[in-house]
Predict the 3D structure of the following.
Amino acid sequence: MIEKIGVIGAGQMGSGIAQVCAAAGLSVCLYDINGEQLAKAVAGISKNFDRQIAKGKMSEAEKDPALSRISTASTMSALGSCDLVIEAATESEEVKRAIFKQLVPNLKPEALVATNTSSISITRLAASTDRPHKFIGMHFMNPVPVMQLVELIRGIATDDDTFQAIKALVAKLGKTAAIAEDFPAFIVNRILLPMINEAVYTLYEGVGSVEAIDTAMKLGANHPMGPLELADFIGLDTCLSIMQVLYEGLADSKYRPCPLLVKYVEAGWLGRKVGRGFYDYSGPTPRPTR
Ligand SMILES: NC(=O)c1ccc[n+]([C@@H]2O[C@H](COP(=O)([O-])OP(=O)(O)OC[C@H]3O[C@@H](n4cnc5c(N)ncnc54)[C@H](O)[C@@H]3O)[C@@H](O)[C@H]2O)c1
């Protein structure tokens, strides 16, 4: 039975995962190396619950118990009693491998481990733990409380008990699972990220402005968000990492990251989470930067 969940990384994804787990009645321990990020995550979750109450999706009486199910931690030993730990830290294989190495000595032998990676091989990440058979890809979408899908990805060693337990958890969270094979970027990002990268090339080559590209795709292809707006929402560092995984993993030049995307990441213009990307978010409404 999965009753206590550890979440590693309290950024936009980790805090969203913690929120939906707590709302579903599970106890959550949220861990991050950055203490400020932990405080920000808990404040954000509280605000999101208020928003859900205002919309009639949650009752006032449910809020405090749900919030009290979330604890925060800055040491990994706090994750020792978890039945499942979901890793949602920065999209870097090096960072994730180091986390798993440090995590596993703290875990119960029967604990399951999942990663929310957007693109990195589940089999390779599993190999950096002592339990590849209890390891799985659990790819939530952003924003987690709103998006219905969770992609499930088995590594080569993932056993059926692990897969079934995680599939049942997805249902308990009120989400829908889609099963993907362990190929670079799985299904959603294999299709979505090359489109976003192409939108950045379209900007880079001067085919259109930020506004023209987003308006064209919203009104011309009926996308709810333009691709550059979406890139800012995902985080340009995450977008670049996914393109690099596709480029290297599939060894095909069609996936080469656009130099303009590289430049934005090098400048620290990572999108919405830092206040600037293809749009500037410092004013009341986002302003295109090109
Ligand atoms: N942004 C998206 O749209 C999206 C969607 C699905 C999946 N993901 C994946 O989720 C993961 C997190 O993405 P995000 O958008 O939340 O990123 P983010 O930048 O908002 O948050 C990352 C968090 O990880 C923390 N962190 C970094 N190193 C750590 C360590 N060693 N130990 C503990 N915490 C550490 C950082 O302090 C930060 O709080 C990535 O693997 C990403 O690919 C992102």
Q: What stands out?
A: The longest strand covers residues 135-140. Residues 8-14, 32-34, 37, 88-91, 95, 99, 116-118, 139-142, 234-235, 238, 273 surround nicotinamide-adenine-dinucleotide (CB under 6 Å). Residues 228 and 278 are 6 Å apart (CA to CA). The chain is about 45% helix and 15% strand.
